[in-house]
Write a structure and sequence with these properties.
30% helix; 15 strands; alpha/beta; 6-stranded mixed β-sheet; 440 residues; globular; 11 helices
Length: 440
């Protein structure tokens, strides 16, 4: 079951980013008293009363023609509204209802999505007149809130979660490997699904945005069962422009949440662009096993160094995926597509690989002897014990006498040691340091 999506929308300077920071519990959105600071959508995970969800911060919606950034911000906010399950509309009680508020409200009513109306910047919650006028927007009861001071945000979260559909986990074959095929529009995601299946089950088109919904398709190859999750780019074909392609992440997020292995599709004819990095970054942040799949390889003129040069470029542009294997394919000609499935099997196994505690400590102790931990402030830093606490993703806990002095660069060194000794190809590794008092 994928997480619900909540989009925070409203005109500029009403406090959307401040409220986003409150709801995710961290200062992740840039907050300045200048309209238009939030230009790209920000995404994060949040939860309330046991319900997890994805929350999106959007730029302020304006309805004048404005400059190119104003038009792009309006487009990306509308895209967020399209993809959201619940919309959190933020208004400013100090300024009251403006003409732009009315236009945003009209846009939201037209979407027919559940809307929670947050009347922000309330100073006295006993004075209903401060927010009473917002009933005129026709979006239900306004909920007073002060995002700046974190007041009444619980009421907002209660109202948002109440709009979610009941959580239903569909029964799935636990032995089937769930594959999310993710990437920006028009890199060949649907074509790869069709190539795997050997029949046309998903509409394929040269127009970005053809796939309107995520489509889960079970199939079997060489005795292994899979579930393919095809993900869409931007939905409205009439809106496809180079400028809006960078806002096409939302539909991939839900699929990534549910998958075991993500195939990060790139276009060989275009190389790695900024949106590719965003999508790949989200896969990495969600700690999902992954393979970099370079499609349209049949369109590249080759010599003896072509693949080596592509490898170097990919590793440079996606250096945070240094652990990920790269597969060069053509979904059109089916070149190496079933080699990709064999690699999926291998990566899924690596993602679920468990190392015994004795093996782990032997390797870690040897690594520490070769490259001892640096001290800090005259203190001797020691790792006494390590263990793997989970798989998918492989997660390791290191018990140290001064965990705050174990530098991230040393953890990176230990991660490289673990990969050299145990593999974990295509699998992100989580490293946790906890305190354990030294016995000497």
């Amino acid at each position: 079951m994928s997480k619900p999506v909540v989009a925070i929308v409203g005109r500029p300077k009403v406090g959307k980013s401040t409220l986003f920071n409150r709801l995710v519990g961290a200062r992740k959105a840039i907050v300045e008293d200048i309209p238009g600071v939030t230009r790209d959508r920000l995404y994060d995970n949040s939860d309330w009363n046991g319900r997890e969800f994805i929350i999106i911060d959007t730029g302020g919606i304006r309805f004048d023609d404005g400059d190119i950034f104003t038009r792009e911000i309006k487009m990306q906010a509308e895209l967020a509204i399209e993809e959201a399950d619940v919309i959190l509309f933020v208004a400013d009680t100090r300024e009251g209802i403006t003409f732009e508020d009315q236009l945003v409200a009209k846009l939201l009513r037209k979407s027919k999505k559940p809307v929670v109306l947050a009347a922000n910047k309330v100073e006295n919650f006993d004075r209903q007149l401060e927010y009473y006028e917002f009933y005129k927007l026709g979006l239900g009861d306004p909920i007073p809130v002060s995002a700046m001071h974190g007041l009444n945000t619980n009421e907002i979260l209660d109202a948002v979660v109440a709009q979610f559909e009941p959580g239903i986990d569909l029964e799935e074959n636990s032995d089937a490997i769930k594959i999310a095929i993710v990437g920006r529009p028009n890199v060949g995601k649907s074509s790869l699904v069709n190539a795997f299946l050997g029949e046309v089950r998903v509409i394929v088109s040269d127009v970005p945005g053809t796939t309107r919904d995520a489509v889960d398709t079970p199939f079997e190859y060489n005795g292994q069962e899979y579930i393919l999750i095809d993900t869409a780019g931007i939905r409205k074909k009439s809106r496809i422009t180079e400028a809006t392609e960078k806002y096409s992440v939302i539909r991939a997020l839900k699929a990534i949440e549910r998958c075991d292995v993500a195939l990060i599709m790139l276009d060989a004819t275009e190389g790695v662009i900024e949106q590719d990095k965003r999508i790949a970054g989200y896969v990495h942040e969600q700690a999902k096993a992954n393979i970099i799949v370079v499609n349209k390889w049949d369109l590249i003129e080759k010599d003896g160094q072509t693949m080596k040069k592509f490898d170097e470029d990919m590793r440079r542009d996606l250096k945070f995926l240094a652990y990920s294997p790269i597969m060069y394919i053509s979904a059109l000609t089916k070149q190496r597509i079933f080699k990709t499935l064999e690699l999926v099997d291998f990566v899924a196994d690596q993602y679920n690989h468990r190392v015994t505690t004795s093996q782990l400590n032997e390797v870690v102790n040897d690594a520490i002897m070769i490259n001892p931990l640096p001290g800090g402030g005259g203190k001797r830093v020691k790792i006494m014990y390590s263990t793997q606490v989970r798989t998918a993703p492989p997660t390791f806990v290191f018990f140290a006498n001064h965990p705050d002095l174990v530098h991230f660069s040393y953890l990176r060194y230990l991660e490289n040691v673990l990969r050299k000794n145990f593999g974990f190809e295509g699998a992100p590794i989580k490293m946790i340091v906890r305190e354990k008092k030294s016995e000497d």
